[in-house]
Amino acid sequence: LQVLVATGNPGKRAEMERLLRAHLPDVVVLGLPDVEAYDEPVEDAPDFAGNALLKARAGLAATGLPTVADDSGLCVDALNGMPGVLSARWSGQPKSDERNNRLLLEQLADVPDERRGAHFTCAVAFVHPTAGEHVVEGHMAGRVGREVRGGGGFGYDVLFEADDAPGRTTAELTREQKDAISHRGHALREIAPYVAEVLAR
Ligand code: ITT
Questions:
Q1: Looking at residue 109, what is its pLDDT?
Q2: What's the number of domains the chain is made of?
Q3: Looking at residue 139, which CATH number applies to its domain?
Q4: What does pTM read for this prediction?
Q5: For ligand 1, is residue 157 a contact (CB within 6 Å)?
Q6: Residue 94: pLDDT band by 50, 70, 90 thresholds?
Q7: ipTM passes above 0.85
Q8: Which domain holds residue 140?
Q9: Which residue has the CA at smallest separation from atom 13 of ligand 1?
Q10: How many angstroms separate the CA atoms of 125 and 131, rounded?
């Protein structure tokens, strides 16, 4: 049994692979480096679920394999939900976590502690040649800190303090700690039993 994880983001891919493996012990998880024909789709859907589906469909189209894809991002209250679906490319092309984090600190420079709330959303789509399409969402609430801290994770983790792990950024958590509370952990734990059931058919 095989499933393709269609993401070009190495940090995301590592988390998706270990969460899927934990719940699908008998399934071989392939990544995009294993696939030649994948065409990265234009992520022009208005929401996370729509973009996750675009990526999952592209994986299925390229390989014929059941495919899991993730579209995720950080929604900041004081910025009316930005950067949201634009999180990866907020500061422009090419994608740069460091520039994105600098921009986030700049945009929130005058925002007091009590108004620095934010949440991550992760939509995970699973598409299968005969079983069709399925999407779930996970969330992680917290706040944006004032300085970059920690060496784990990726993206905005160095600035984000989760309500479930206060006082530390999600880049200061162990992998297991982040997986236990993260938007991606919640979404993948929700969809994994369905993926397992479909693959076993
Ligand atoms: P793929 O589309 O190839 O999967 P991407 O990085 O472009 O990779 P998205 O469009 O879904 O993916 O953007 C997600 C961005 O949101 C990601 O680049 C980070 O900036 C941010 N993000 C998502 N989950 C995160 C997490 O767990 N920790 C920190 N930042 C995260």
A1: 98
A2: 1
A3: 3.90.950.10
A4: 0.97
A5: yes
A6: confident
A7: yes
A8: 2-199
A9: 88
A10: 13
